[in-house]
User: Fold this.
Amino acid sequence: MTVLTRAIAFFLLTVTAGVAAHGRPGRPGPRPGGPPPESWCSPARRSQRKPWQTLTDPQRDDYIRASLCLAEMPARHGIEGAKTLWDELHYAHIAQSAFIHFVGGFLPWHRYFLVAHETLLRGDCGYQGPMPYWDQTNDVSNLRGAAVFDPISGFGGDGVGPDLCIGDGPFVNLTLRFNEDLAFDEPYCLVRNMSECLFQGAAPSFVNDCLGAETYVDAWACLEKSPHISGHWGVGGTMSNTLLSPGDPIFFLHHGWLDRLWWEWQSKDLATRLTEVDGPNIIPTNATGPPPGQRRRRGMDWLRRRGGPPDDSTCPGTPLGGGPGAGLAHGGGTKNKAITDYFNDGGGILTTLNHTLWSAGIIPNATIAEVMDLHGPLVCADYV
Ligand SMILES: [Cu+2]
Assistant:
């Protein structure tokens, strides 16, 4: 059994483990042992999510400190090959990449992953400030000058040299371990290869198109393409790899922005959109993994060859054409019950509120229903 099939087997086994309590270390939480009532998340309890640009210098410093702490704290979730908590977060995304992208659960799973990340930041590394996100509105024409990439107060800048490892900032020595196939024998660096051109899909005009969508499927497919892909490809390198992207700490700020946009869309009609989810629960082909026969590609090999944008020919045509969601939004999922039954979607090929969300044991499994409301007890956050 390869490492990857072992991981998938682990995933399929543990994803059925049920939904447990929601105690969250580092935050005021309910008593362990039972889910809190819906009313638990009072405004005073909500985690504040703010644009990075609005954080004070001490808040930025503390967030960077806590992020570096995650990359040093020993792994503790039983994941083979993981040395640090950062590795474990990385693993949780890589191991199920084919089940969380280009599917209806894309937005809910990444919301849940933000909670997993926040839980570790606060519980293991003592972070107490607001959760930052990357508001990209004003950075479209000046990607490299964006505050988030400041080498002193931010996440450092572009890649340099032949390997395009980042050349400055606090994460210059960050070590990534898991490769696309979950092998972990050859650590590698954080790579960036910025493209302002590929970032253009983050422009407000495209964002506003998504916010105007009428249905969940249209909103999800729109958001996952541009601005989502535009942020990944605009930063490039590690971020432009569908599996490996959470290795770059900017990933969590990018997905915070995307989640804010989903919440903004939901907030236009909460009566409907707090329970509206749809789309396939699995992609028809493993579009996010390496081609057959190339399973053993190393993370660094991939990044060396494709450290740049996946396809320059899409530039300057914006928004990105043929991206995720295209042709998938209304079906195309597998009918292989051996897989779909594990998600608790009733055996069908469409994503339901009952769909199981899994984080390799970093936080308890949850259902999509539990992350739909930002003010529910599981997420309990506010975009301010
Ligand atoms: Cu992802």
Residues 9-32, 286-298, 301-312, 316-338 have pLDDT under 50 and may be disordered.
